[in-house]
Specification:
Layout: H1 10-22, E1 29-30, H2 32-39, H3 43-51, E2 58-60, E3 64-68, H4 69-78, H5 83-86
Length: 87
């Protein structure tokens, strides 16, 4: 076969497409709800940490706050969970 008339192996294309669709694309910037879900805390906990300066936050417009995925994970790993304080 010449390069101009090569047949495309559909099984290869199908395999590549299934691999691409199986991968989930995770956004770099998260809203407070998604940030909380990432580390299993409430949206309010995320916002309290941001307002206290414990978690870096980025304001977009007047009311939209976003958080970098790495910052949320780093905050969660250095923040100790105290069940007594949660009660």
């Amino acid at each position: 076969m010449t390069s101009a008339t090569q047949a495309v192996d559909t099984s290869v294309v199908t395999e590549l497409l299934s691999r691409l669709t199986a991968q989930t694309v995770q956004p770099e910037m998260l809203n407070s709800k998604d940030a909380g879900a990432l580390v299993s805390v409430s949206r309010d906990t995320i916002m309290r940490a941001a307002n206290a300066g414990e978690l870096p936050a980025y304001t977009i417009g007047a009311r939209n706050t976003r958080f970098r995925r790495e910052d949320v994970i780093a905050w969660a790993t250095r923040t100790a969970y105290d069940p007594a304080a949660a009660a």
